[in-house]
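dumping the sequnces here before i forget
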Amino acid sequence: MNNRPSDFRVSRQTWHFPNDVRILSTATAVGPKEGEGPLGALFDKVYDDMYAGQDSWENAERQLLEDAVNLALKKANVTGQEIDVFFAGDLLNQNITTNFTAEKVSIPLMGMYGACSTSMLTLANAAAQVNSGYANKALAACSSHNATAERQYRYPTEYGGQKPPSAQWTVTGAGAAVVGTGGSGPRITYATIGKVVDMGIKDPFDMGSAMAPAAASTLQAHFSDTGRSPNDYDLIVTGDLAAVGFPILKDLMKTDGYDMDRVYNDCGLMVYSADQDVFAGGSGCASSAVVTYSYLVDQVKRGQLKKVLVCATGALLSPVSYQQGNSIPCIAHAVAIEGGGS
Amino acid sequence: MATKAKSNGSNQMTKQLYKQQAAKYQPKRNVLLNSIRAFWVGGSICLLGQAIQNIYINFFGFTEKTASNPTVATLIFLSVLLTGLGVYDNIGQYAGAGSAVPVTGFANSIASAAIEHRSEGFVLGVGGNMFKLAGSVIVFGVVAAFIAGIIKTVWKMIV
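..and the predicted 3d for all of it:
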């Protein structure tokens, strides 16, 4: 390692990874609705059944995460034994999908919960461990499943309650990335860890409004810490702000002097097409994971995009917290992914 | 780079102000359209109920009073069937209160919870969770009936 730890810390929130930290491989596994979406052809595995051949929704989610992990390992041409640490999380109580998957692959686990921000929380930590030398190779992964999330956070899947247009559709899928050094894959250069922001939004069917200020906080910290501006990136995506949070974030950023119009998109809007009946758009850990680990990484590898910033957004509510009248605390974590150079 | 206070303007924005700003982008519910949908779907379910009741009266020898039990049972059966086939939640998204208020909505809330928790076993899963949503309807229905009964009894004693 040529760089000293003093090069790593940019600020309390932002980490720099100067030691050639790269994404060695990525893989995604999704459900039928995601397969029919505009990115369908880019996913590694598409199940045409929400059960993914299993007997319960929870087992189906586990299957998706296992598939993503195994495919990522296979694409990187490594076995689980060569991976030093596994960062993963999901939306279910006690991170149960992650725990069962980690048992199968037998890699030392650091389970994480960041709601839908887990994709970049795990990737940032994997990059940090590889950069600092605690791990030679690390694996980052997360998953969500529409039906398991509905059961946990809302109502039974077949319950005929009406949802408002600001509601979002939890993405069924899982994404995994093997992080290491060397090669010619996309580099992970910076990560900005978010602070919890709560602007008093209480409606669990309007998470876009709740999460937008958290995304703005993290993005502003990232730009101010790195000295970069939105136009230094070819594309900036948020995880799952969807149709409601997307314009709010643009507004918040503009108020603070950052014009995002040219480069900004949202994974929750990219993963489905407008005619797929998903209310305001996609949500869930898998929203940012399956878009980043398929389309974005592909584009960076091909040189179509040179610098990408992924800002995964999470609503840290629990069914108990909102029923007790609490507002929704939110968080966002950003990771900069850049192409080029070996 | 230093970590001195950043210009996090939007975070210093008060919660009240943010709510107002966010409200501009929150899609409005179309109350009129939703009401029309609820009216015609809810009305159709009631019309179907009436037709079923007439069938029981005219062809199976029930009276107007005794026909209500088999009528409700038939509607519940249809609702549970549609729930099991994965159709009722789509109707619910379209019709809102129109499909939630009639007895079919009540049946849907029980059947959907039973299906959902089947994977946790029959006793603790299905049995323990079936009335998760319907339970409050029963509780407050019984309480309301009790209060109405008391009012009626007291009224009769006075008048």
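Chain B touches chain A through 47 residues (CB under 8 Å).
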